Amino acid sequence: MRHTHTSLLAEAGVSLPQIMERLGHKDEDTTKNVYLHVTKEMKKEASQKFKELMDNL
What we know:
Layout: H1 2-11, H2 16-23, H3 28-35, H4 40-55
Protein name: Tyrosine-type recombinase/integrase
Domain Tyr recombinase: 1-48
InterPro entries: DNA_brk_join_enz, Integrase-like_cat_sf, Integrase_catalytic
């Protein structure tokens, strides 16, 4: 549940320091490497941003 919660916070645009505070982490590597996972929505957003970038070249 912590992994899902962390990923959904990131998907919602919550900053890494805010997520770390919420989880009680002092080391950002723990938050990023253990708890933060890329969601399907994040993948879609990345694809859309790349498409927009390529369309504007």
